[in-house]
Amino acid sequence: MQPIYGKDTARDIKYNVKLEIARWNGRGITPRMAVVLASSDPASLVYVQSKKRTAESLGLGLEVFDLGAEVSQRELEQTLHRLSDSAEFQGVMLEFPLAPHLDPEKALSRIAAHKDVEGLSPANLSLIATGREKDAILAPTPHACILLAETQGPLIGKRVAVIGPGRTVGRPLISMLINRGATVTVVTEHTREVQTTLKDCEVIFVCVGRHGLLRKAAITEGQIVIDAGINVINDGLKGDADPEIYPLLKAYSPVPGGVGVVTSALIFQNFVRALELQAQEALTGGQA
């Protein structure tokens, strides 16, 4: 078994981002990202402060807009729309989870596609689903999953499985895998005979958010597992794969230390992509 750590990949991504941001800084411009909070989740604030420190180390500004857990849907949408329209910010991010009364779909639709550093706006997801990744900003978690899987070889022609077709990870991941020529099996809560379904898959991506979901009974020896699950358990952060499966695997991404590390770096790569798209738009006068 071989653990697939994300540290080296994340370091390379951030190195390139820093070079790109330095080019903007050299012109007297400090690009800025806006991050919006709309919940009482204490972990979210910790994550945002970590992003802010990383942003500063890369040479860009990051401003946090904490709207609180009582914010209305209308106020949240108006804030996202205002930030998307503002020339002060070249990237806008909505931190999840949101307060329970808020509609994430409606909120995300208010972020302009060319400033959507998490690649979760309907416009970016549509581009990915139609095979136009070169025109899109890619959702960072599924992109991280693919980068780690590709350390074990190209995905073209491989049989792969995605466990959990959720909106923010699974669904865009499915499209991105298809775009890379993989043969994709999707496992949902209604899938019968999971072991039989997964048996011939070389790579399994699990992204449900349920600790220990993927167990020995579902695994065939020699498979690769990319774990995008994030579960806060008493003794720390855990993935969706039960560690008891590791000895059976050819390779696996650990939690923490795998997908999450790369995801954090890709948010800033997406910011650079957003800068490029806005520069192109300025040159063409806003025409596609």
UniProtKB/TrEMBL annotation:
Pathway: One-carbon metabolism; tetrahydrofolate interconversion
Domain Tetrahydrofolate dehydrogenase/cyclohydrolase NAD(P)-binding: start-end pairs: 141-277
Gene3D superfamilies (UniProt xref): Leucine Dehydrogenase, chain A, domain 1 (3.40.50.10860), NAD(P)-binding Rossmann-like Domain (3.40.50.720)
InterPro entries reported in the protein's UniProt record: Aminoacid_DH-like_N_sf, NAD(P)-bd_dom_sf, THF_DH/CycHdrlase, THF_DH/CycHdrlase_cat_dom, THF_DH/CycHdrlase_NAD-bd_dom
Domain Tetrahydrofolate dehydrogenase/cyclohydrolase catalytic: 4-118
Highest rank taxon of the organism: Bacteria
EC number: 1.5.1.5, 3.5.4.9
Catalytic activity: (6R)-5,10-methylene-5,6,7,8-tetrahydrofolate + NADP(+) = (6R)-5,10-methenyltetrahydrofolate + NADPH; (6R)-5,10-methenyltetrahydrofolate + H2O = (6R)-10-formyltetrahydrofolate + H(+)
Pfam families for the chain: THF_DHG_CYH (PF00763), THF_DHG_CYH_C (PF02882)
Record-listed NADP(+) binding positions: G164, P165, G166, I230
Keywords assigned by UniProt, alphabetized: Amino-acid biosynthesis, Histidine biosynthesis, Hydrolase, Methionine biosynthesis, Multifunctional enzyme, NADP, One-carbon metabolism, Oxidoreductase, Purine biosynthesis
Recorded family membership: Belongs to the tetrahydrofolate dehydrogenase/cyclohydrolase family.
Function: Catalyzes the oxidation of 5,10-methylenetetrahydrofolate to 5,10-methenyltetrahydrofolate and then the hydrolysis of 5,10-methenyltetrahydrofolate to 10-formyltetrahydrofolate.
HAMAP family named among the record's database cross-references: THF_DHG_CYH
Subunit structure, as described in the record: Homodimer.
Protein name according to UniProt: Bifunctional protein FolD
Organism of this sequence: Deinococcus roseus
Lineage of the organism: Bacteria, Thermotogati, Deinococcota, Deinococci, Deinococcales
